[in-house]
Design brief:
Length: about 375
C-alpha cells in the first residue's frame, strides 16, 4: 500500500532511438526536462541522477545519463558554471528527515518535482541535504547557489544564519524558518479545521488525531499536552490546532512520520479498546489515514459505519480501493514550483515574493454520521 514510486521504466530502445517528434528546440538547446522525458523519469529524478543524491537506482541513473548523452546535455557542471557565472549550478534542498524516508512520501517527491521544473530554466541541479547527524555540517559548507528548506524547524536557525552570512538565497516551504526567509506557506490550520467541521456537521463529538512527528527524535506515543508543548514541527502543530478549533479536547497518537505502517500502529492504539474508541479519526497525511483504515479492518470495524477517517494531502495511495478517502488536497507540485521560481528570481536579480497555498476539501466515502448506540 505504501509504494509511492513515480519513476516508470522505459525500454532500452527508447533511450537508444530518439523520438522523431521531439521538440526541435530541445535538440538545439538541450535541457534537463528534455532529458527526463527521453529517459522516462520525473525532472527531480533526472536532477538527482546528476547530483548523485537521493535514492536513485544505478539502472535509472544510467538511463538518465544515456539520454543526456544522446541529447548532448552535459548536466549541471559546477566547475564550468563557477568559471562562467560565479555559480555552482546546484540548488540545495534541506530536509529534517532521512533521505530514504523522504522518498517514501509522495508529497516530498511532488515538491522536488516542482522545484526541479523551475530551476531547469537556469540548468541547475538538486542537492539533497539532511539535518541528521554528521550531514548537518554539509548544510553549512556545501557548494550551492541557493537553498530550499522543506518543513524545517527553528533548530536549524544556526545553519540558516551561516548560509545567510555566505549570501546564499533561502526559500522555506512551510516549517518555521528564521526571520526574513521567504516562505511558501500552506493553509494547514484552516484546511484541517474544515475537515473537523465536516465531522462535527455529521454529528461526531469524539474525534481523535493521528499526527505526523512532533519532535526531532520522532518518538511515537499518546498525544499529550507536554509533548505538544515540546513540539518543533510547525506543520504538525498547525494541523492539530485546526482540529482543536472545532474539538478542543481532541486527543490522539503521535507517529514517527508519514508512513502507512505508522498509521496502522496509531490506528490500533486508538481503536482496539472499545471503551475508548473514537467515532472518527483525522490523520495528518493520506498514508497515515490508509494505515488507520487497515487497523480498523484488522479490528473488525467498518469504515465509515464504525469509524470515519479523514486524511490530508490528496496523494495516490496504492491498495486503498474500494475506499475514496475523504481528504484535503494540497497543491504540492505548485508549492514546489513557487519555491523554485522564487529561487530563480533571486539568482537572476529579480524580486521574489512569498506565497500561500490553499487546500481543497475532497468528500470521499470514508466519512459518515456516527453509528447510534
Amino acid at each position: 500500500m505504501n509504494d509511492t514510486s513515480t519513476t516508470p521504466e522505459v525500454e532500452k530502445s527508447d533511450v537508444e532511438k530518439p523520438d522523431p517528434e521531439q521538440d526541435a528546440a530541445a535538440v538545439v538547446r538541450p535541457t534537463l526536462a528534455a532529458v527526463a522525458r527521453l529517459a522516462g523519469v520525473s525532472n527531480s529524478t533526472a536532477s538527482l541522477a546528476f547530483s548523485g543524491t537521493g535514492p536513485v537506482s544505478d539502472a535509472t541513473r544510467d538511463r538518465v545519463l544515456a539520454a543526456a548523452k544522446q541529447l548532448n546535455y552535459a548536466g549541471p557542471d559546477p566547475r564550468a558554471r563557477s568559471l562562467r557565472r560565479g555559480r555552482s549550478g546546484i540548488v540545495g534542498v534541506v530536509m529534517e528527515e532521512r533521505v530514504g524516508d523522504a522518498f517514501r512520501d509522495p508529497i516530498k517527491i511532488a515538491l522536488l518535482d516542482g522545484i526541479s521544473e523551475e530551476i531547469a530554466a537556469i540548468d541547475a541541479g538538486l542537492l539533497i541535504l539532511t539535518d541528521a547527524g554528521e550531514a548537518a555540517q554539509r548544510i553549512e559548507d556545501a557548494p550551492m547557489d541557493a537553498v530550499v528548506l522543506i518543513g524545517c524547524s527553528p533548530r536549524l536557525d544556526e545553519s540558516v544564519a551561516m548560509l545567510r552570512q555566505r549570501g546564499i538565497p533561502l526559500v522555506a516551504i512551510e516549517g518555521d524558518p528564521a526571520d526574513e526567509v521567504l516562505t511558501i506557506a500552506q493553509d494547514n490550520r484552516e484546511a484541517t479545521r474544515v475537515a473537523a467541521q465536516h465531522l462535527a456537521d455529521l454529528g461526531h463529538t469524539d474525534v481523535a488525531v493521528v499526527t505526523l512527528s512532533l519532535t526531532r527524535d520522532r518518538s511515537r506515543g499518546s498525544l499529550t499536552a507536554e509533548r505538544v508543548a515540546a513540539g518543533s514541527s510547525n506543520t504538525t502543530i498547525e494541523r492539530l490546532a485546526g482540529v482543536r478549533d472545532v474539538f478542543p479536547e481532541a486527543g490522539g497518537y503521535i507517529t514517527r512520520g508519514s508512513f502507512v505502517e505508522e498509521g496502522r500502529i496509531a490506528g490500533h492504539a486508538l481503536l482496539d479498546d472499545p471503551a475508548k474508541r473514537p467515532t472518527a479519526i483525522i490523520a495528518q497525511s493520506d498514508l497515515l489515514a490508509a494505515g488507520v483504515i487497515r487497523a480498523a479492518e484488522e479490528a473488525g470495524l467498518e469504515v465509515p459505519a464504525d469509524v470515519s477517517v479523514v486524511g490530508f494531502d490528496g496523494a495516490r495511495v496504492d491498495g486503498l480501493w474500494p475506499y475514496d478517502l475523504t481528504t484535503l488536497v494540497q497543491p504540492a507540485v505548485d508549492k514546489g514550483r513557487a519555491a523554485g521560481a522564487a529561487i530563480v528570481d533571486m539568482l537572476e536579480g529579480r524580486v521574489a515574493h512569498p506565497a500561500t497555498f490553499t487546500s481543497v476539501f475532497h468528500l470521499g466515502n470514508t466519512t459518515a454520521a456516527p453509528r447510534t448506540a
